[in-house]
Amino acid sequence: MSFGQDLAWRLEGVAFAGLIGLMRLLGLTRASAVGGWLLKALGPMTGTQKTVMRNLRIAFPDMPRAEREALATAQWEQTGRTFAETLVMDQLTPASGRIEIVGIERLHAIRDSGRPAVLVSGHMANIEVMAAVIVAAGVPCQVTYRAANNPYVDKQIREARARYGVTLFAPKGGDGARELLAGMARGESVALMNDQKFSEGPEVTFFGQPVNAAPGPSRLALRFGTFIQPMSVVRLPGVRFRVTAHEPIELEKTGDRSGDIVRGVQAITTFIEDRVREHPVDWFWVHKRWPQKVYDALDAER
User: Which tens digits make up the pLDDT trace of 20-46?
Assistant: First the structure.
């Protein structure tokens, strides 16, 4: 690492620490409101707005344009609220009284079984709330995430989440994968997001269009002879949330491992699509979920 890069990262780290301090000073409710207000105003002016609108056209081709634009603005506010809330997540746990939990008995069953499960979800509402619920339910679980490029910022993120009991795990390369597998062999579950583009993954269907999705959750479930536990979170008024542990997805071993994995990936992808259709404003619309050929076809049609 060059001196210049290290200095830039350190300055970013100082600025990030100041932001955390400001949000903590404001408190959860005001921090959430400020974050939502800022991104609602600024988000539509960014280049990412084009991606949001294209994604909404792919998912909801029959939705009137004005309705899509209103949904795009509302999702920016949701994203801003989530970012601000993440900085003060120790104030947003089941103990705060702000989280309804549906299906907690399923998490308790995982906890009491001593066997691992693969918990999956998508980027909906505030995903940190799900992590807080998993921890509070007593499930030994590796919560995976993508580490921030800036190591000083990443350290602060990990420390902020550790304040409410979440131990984050960012698997990188072979060593990371071996550590994850060793944890599952010890009976620890793993929580994974499975709704972003993964070019090397199998092709399945999402909102009637092809997508590539990570096969990891399905592979792990098949390898350890366990089930997939789908999770979802919905934002409620007043900085409140509902977390649901849904009916488990049981994968069948047919002898065709590749086919079994694809069927698992499709089942997870269908689950996420159903949740997005129920509460579209909660989903993270800013990433390019579909392959380029789908966007090219959308542009050609227009």
Answer: 888 889 999 999 999 999 999 999 999
Are β-strands 118-121 and 189-193 bridged in parallel, bridged antiparallel, or unpaired? parallel
The C-alpha atoms of residue 104 and residue 38 are separated, in whole angstroms, by 34
β-pairing, 168-169 vs 118-121, is unpaired
Find the angle CA(174)-CA(180)-CA(182) to the nearest 5 degrees. 100
d(Cα 36, Cα 173) in Å, to the nearest integer?
Answer: 36
DSSP 62: T
Q: For the chain, first and last CA: distance in Å?
A: 46
* DSSP E strand boundaries for 150-227: 168-169, 189-193, 203-206, 209-212
Q: 275-297 burial by CB neighbour count: b if 16+ within 10 A, else e?
A: bbeebbbbbbbbeebbeeebbee
The length of the chain in residues reads 302
What would the pLDDT profile of 212-234 be if each residue is shown by its tens digit?
999 989 999 999 999 999 999 99
* Tokens 């050929």 sit on residue: 293
pLDDT at 100 (0 to 100): 96
Closest CA to 268 of 193, 182, 172: 193
Task: Compute the distance between CA of residue 52 and CA of residue 71 in angstroms, rounded to an integer.
Answer: 10
Q: What is the mean pLDDT of residues 56-70?
A: 95
Q: pTM here?
A: 0.90
**What's the pLDDT at 41?**
96
Query: How many CA atoms lie less than 13 Å away from 150 in the CB half-sphere?
Result: 17
- Which residues have C-beta within 8 Å of that of residue 218, sequence separation ≥ 6? 228, 251, 260, 261, 263, 264, 265, 268
pLDDT, average across residues 120-136: 92
Task: Give the strand pairing for 141-144 and 240-245.
Answer: unpaired
